[in-house]
Design brief:
Layout lengths: L14 H8 L6 H13 L3 H17 L3 H12 L6 H15 L3 H4 L12 H13 L5 E4 L3 E9 L4 E6 L5 E4 H7 L1 E2 L5 H7 L1 H10 L1 H12 L4 H8 L9 H15 L2 E2 L9 E2 L9 H8 L3 H13 L8 H18 L4 H14 L9 H6 L3 H8 L7 H11 L3 H8 L6 H13 L3 H13 L5 H9 L1 H6 L5 H12 L5 H14 L2 H9 L3 H13 L5 H14 L4 H4 L12 E3 H30 L8 H25 L2 E3 L13 E7 L4 E6 L11 E2 L4 H6 L7 E4 L6 E9 L3 H7 L4
Parallel strand pairs: 8-9, 11-12
Antiparallel strand pairs: 1-2, 1-5, 2-3, 3-4, 6-7, 10-11, 10-14, 13-14
Helix pairs in contact: 2-3, 2-16, 3-4, 4-5, 4-7, 7-8, 9-10, 10-11, 11-13, 15-16, 15-17, 16-17, 20-22, 24-27, 26-29, 28-30, 32-33
Length: 720
């Protein structure tokens, strides 16, 4: 606060000043509440809570029960969601209720233990405010008046305008009802409809001001939905709004934004010069709107490093957003932290370190980045790499198969520019080699085909096979968008020509027949794709006409060890992770309003990831053949053989080729899908080969084809 202390008085916001305010006949509650929020925003939560308890007790002693609950709700916003916090809220109310049994039982119907303490206090205040003849509002039933509170059956009976005598349980009423004061627009319209209709015609600005005061900040279209046709006839809306806008621009009591997408909001007083934005910001209670205001102030250079008042105001509002959005809207938390980072606020001014630590966990990072607008993704990634340190690279790499396609592109662009290509290549190689690469990764590789080659991910035939399998899956939402983008690119004649030009005769035949059988496209589109292939490869026409039988597809092999590991992963998902997720969804659903329930959204997103992972593992296990590589020593290089090659400079390199999912750098085990394995496949000692290197293929000679070593055989059996 920046008010000057009165002569002989204490400094604003000091403890002495706060106590002086409590002794006054009339308590300036907005000012004291703002003081508490400012303390909490500066990390002095314990001090703010102590003063809040004093204010709460004084209000209750003066009979201001709802106001006291408002302070308790503010204090609850600083609490955690643990048993201790639940008990604290219960104890505080029981102390206020005293021996009044009817009031004491209300606390049993507000969801303590199922919802956050701050929400439980809001529900408690709702029940306290409901009394005979009091006005209220319900999204389904509209405006109503309480007929009676039945404390025996724990139900409230309400006469709604659309349904008289409607009964609700206390728990449901606490969750959904909105008590209305006598000054609320709907209450005033109920009491005096003719007077409100006259004001609509004669004083439209007053009606808009009353609507914003009653319903809170809202865009113009929401205002129209609130007022029309019940209060303002639809035919009169344009004239009403034009008149209201002119009146409000003159008196300045309602802020009318330049953009229709920004909300109307109430000003306590007309803005004063260039400092009016600070008062507007301090009065704002809408978290998204606060972030828009802060961003505009930063863009316009209003938050100067030397302007302590502006910086303190912004820090307080950002702390309000972080506290209010935490656990429900991770994207708003990120945007608040980004604004704080942009201002250079330290941990003492705005404690964000805990959030940075949380975002090191891939699941928390994914939830946060998916809740962000596209423009904030790159700044978020850049900030985390700078503030979370090199360890955050591992988080980004681990999340490559869990993020949406646009986010994946942003992450890879940032990592590659930062010199982390090796880590990206290893991760993508693992996803491709285990056949777990889905549409997002495959779409990125389609757009960046040079990476497929330089990262030694296999043949383009392997890519096409993975892509077709991915297009056959059922997806929705962002994943469906990525799937459609991949499907469209895959159907381009130029790319199909490049694909078939790069295959040998057997590969072309197998790929054509695979496309002929696929369900990735509707029949007519599939026929069109096959027709394009025949156009560039006329020899495929016989296969199009069905003249040749489909050959039995030979499954690639993998070691028994790798196969059993995938089976164990699938078993855990089916028997442990999915049942636990179902329980999590059930618990989250009990918290109420699913549209604003972050726990429910997170659990449902986790469900999607688990179902996707189960499907991928089930599909992958059907597409390989497990083997122990127990056959005779092969004469030619290939799966189950060791190979020693001699490079042009004379040095030798030994490795062991196993199956599609097998790799162990320490033992020299490589997958049969790698470019190196494919370069030597079928060769014998003495053959000249071209092996992949950092700067392209290099000449080498197969020096020997060897049996698997004892260490490698032990690895295959799972003993190494």
């Amino acid at each position: 606060m920046n008010d000057e202390a009165l002569p002989g008085g204490s400094a604003p916001d000091s403890e002495e000043w706060f106590l002086e305010q409590l002794e006054r006949p009339t308590i300036d509650l907005p000012r004291l509440t703002a003081s508490l929020e400012g303390l909490a925003g500066r990390a002095a939560v314990a001090q703010a809570d102590s003063r809040g308890k004093l204010l709460q007790d004084v209000l209750f002693e003066r009979g201001m029960v709802l106001e006291a609950l408002g302070v308790l709700r503010l204090r609850a916003s600083w609490m955690g969601a643990d048993k201790g916090s639940e008990n604290a809220v219960r104890d505080e109310w029981l102390a206020m209720a005293g021996p009044d049994t009817e009031r004491r039982i209300l606390v049993d119907h507000v969801g303590l233990g199922r919802v956050a303490p701050v929400e439980a206090v809001r529900r408690l205040a709702t029940l306290v405010a409901l009394r005979e003849a009091s006005p209220c509002y319900d999204k389904t039933w509209g405006f109503g008046l309480v007929r009676r509170m039945d404390h025996f059956e724990k139900r409230v009976e309400i006469d709604f305008e659309t349904k008289a005598g409607h009964r609700m349980t206390y728990a449901y009423a606490a969750e959904t009802l909105q008590p209305l004061g006598e000054s609320h627009l709907l209450t005033r319209f109920h009491r005096d409809p003719d007077g409100i209709r006259a004001a609509v015609r004669e004083r439209p600005g007053e009606i808009v001001r009353l609507a914003v005061a009653s319903f809170g900040p809202m865009v113009v279209i929401q205002l129209q939905e609130r007022l029309s046709p019940r209060i303002v006839p639809e035919a009169d809306w344009k004239a009403f709004w034009d008149g209201a806008r002119k009146a409000l621009k003159k008196d300045g009591t309602v802020e009318i934004p330049a953009k229709r997408t920004e909300p109307l909001r109430l000003r306590e007083a007309p803005p004063e010069g260039d400092r009016g934005w600070i008062a507007d910001l301090a009065a704002d209670r809408d978290m998204a709107s606060i972030l828009v205001r802060v961003g505009a102030a930063l863009d316009e250079g209003k938050v100067d490093a030397a302007d302590a008042e502006a910086r303190e105001a912004v820090a307080s509002r950002l702390a309000f957003v972080i506290k209010g959005a935490e656990g429900r809207h991770p994207g708003l938390v990120v945007r608040a932290v980004l604004a704080a980072d942009r201002m250079g606020l330290d941990e003492a001014a705005l404690p964000t370190g805990a959030r940075i630590e949380d975002w090191r966990r891939p699941e928390a990072f994914v939830a946060a980045v998916h809740d962000l607008p596209a423009r904030d993704i790159q700044p978020f990634l850049t900030m985390l790499l700078r503030r979370a340190g090199p360890e955050f690279v591992g988080t980004l790499v681990a999340a490559l198969d869990a993020v949406k396609a646009p986010v994946l592109s942003d992450i890879l662009e940032l990592l590659l520019a930062g010199g982390h290509e090796a880590a990206c290549a290893e991760r993508i190689r693992g996803l491709v080699g285990s056949r777990l690469a889905d549409v997002e990764v495959l779409l990125w590789l389609h757009r960046n085909p040079d990476r497929w080659t330089s990262w030694a991910l296999g043949r383009w035939f392997d890519y096409a096979r993975l892509a077709v399998a991915a297009l056959e899956k059922d997806h929705c939402g962002e994943r469906l968008k990525a799937q459609n983008a991949l499907r469209e690119r895959f159907a381009k004649t130029e790319w199909l020509k490049d694909l078939f030009d790069g295959l040998d005769d057997d590969g072309r035949r197998e790929m054509f027949l695979r496309l002929k059988e696929t369900t990735a496209w509707p029949p007519l589109e599939r026929q069109a794709i096959l027709g394009r292939i025949v156009k560039v490869r006329p020899e495929m026409e016989d296969l199009l006409r069905g003249g040749a039988p489909t050959p039995a597809r030979k499954l690639p092999v993998t070691s028994t060890r790798s196969y059993l590991e995938r089976q164990a992963q699938l078993l855990r998902i089916v028997e442990v992770d999915i049942p636990q997720n179902s329980r999590d969804i059930g618990v989250a659903r009990s918290y109420g309003d699913l549209r604003e329930n972050f726990e429910y959204k997170a659990a449902k997103e986790a469900q999607g990831i688990l179902m996707r992972r189960r499907g991928e593992l089930e599909s992958a296990l059907k597409q390989v053949q497990p083997t122990g590589f127990d056959g005779p020593v092969p004469e030619r290089a290939g799966p189950g053989a060791g190979v020693e090659i001699e490079h042009a400079d004379g040095h030798r390199e030994r490795f062991y080729i196993l199956g599609a999912w097998d790799r162990d750098e320490a033992l020299g085990i490589i997958s049969s899908d790698t470019r190196l394995a494919q370069a030597v496949e079928g060769r014998v000692a003495g053959d000249e080969v071209a092996v992949p290197g950092v700067d392209g293929d290099r000449p080498a000679r197969v020096a020997a084809v060897l049996p698997l070593s004892d260490e490698v055989r032990g690895w295959v059996r799972g003993g190494a």
